[in-house]
Amino acid sequence: xxxxxxxxxxxxxxxxxxxxxxxxxxxxxxxxxxxxxxxxxxxxxxxxxxxxxxxxxxxxxxxxxxxxxxxxxxxxxxxxxxxxxxxxxxxxxxxxxxxxxxxxxxxxxxxxxxxxxxxxxxxxxxxxxxxxxxxxxxxxxxxxxxxxxxxxxxxxxxxxxxxxxxxxxxxxxxxxxxxxxxxxxxxxxxxxxxxxxxxxxxxxxxxxxxxxxxxxxxxxxxxxxxxxxxxxxxxxxxxxxxxxxxxxxxxxxxxxxxxxxxxxxxxxxxxxxxxxxxxxxxxxxxxxxxxxxxxxxxxxxxxxxxxxxxxxxxxxxxxxxxxxxxxxxxxxxxxxxxxxxxxxxxxxxxxxxxxxxxxxxxxxxxxxxx
Length: 370
Prior knowledge:
The protein is of the alpha/beta class. It has helices at residues 16-24, 36-42, 54-60, 76-85, 104-109, 124-139, 173-179, 222-226, 229-232, 248-251, 253-260, 265-276, 318-336, 350-362; strands at 6-9, 29-33, 49-51, 66-69, 89-92, 113-115, 147-158, 183-187, 190-194, 202-206, 209-215, 235-245, 283-296, 299-313, 342-344, 368-369.
């Protein structure tokens, strides 16, 4: 499989660490953004920025180029069709959408890849889950396991908690939409659903700190990603979700009421942004963990947690580093380790998982274990 020039589409606040790394390492790179001035400022005026016009982009794409799309997820289907037309690879940090499946045969025909979920969450969470399952499968026979629970949680919040228990580094609209989205998870061997994620808030203690958590989207498709067939029927609990600071739900109760009343999300978002955005001297914090827990005849046979807990100044935030440096690690993994064409989420093969986790460790994003 061949990989040529990298085209990075969209330079928001989560892009700069990855873009600057690719530039510093001498990768053949073109950066595209609708606002040239905004992108130049975010990248410290160190790169030439192309105005993002799809006609111009189409003219510049060559076969086997890599398109990195940091555009809104709603645009990725059209970008994927452009990638097929120009026989390019495509990488996004956004969630896989079932409608992409209809494009897979064309990516395979072109001997190209379309990789999704290559950021923080989704992204690093998958890597940690695959790492834990690989270790678990090597150490314990399936016949000695009759109960499995997996908890995968991630959240970004202020390093020093504010009264509102949250701050925004970009538009609050995404957070509001996520809270307003139905969720599905497994509890006591059964699928549970809720029409809105914030109806399922619970308390959690992690490393001596108290937090609040709630489920995120539909967890169930990831069982087939994380586990081999002989374990699927043994899953008692499985939830992917979001971490928030202790006291968050109390401070956000008025927001929940407005979501229940189907209030205007754009208006709420604008008000939240005005009152609760990060200041330049503040730090953000990212906490992500995956716990893999197994029993046999009511005795614990496996209990391990992998996690990251990182804080950075907001100008080079932990969020932006975890998202974009994971993406560039995926790119370098592709270049150095050949793989099969098609459409998928981030890698699950242990050699690729280890490659990316080692890269993150070298970037200062430490994978820790409990």
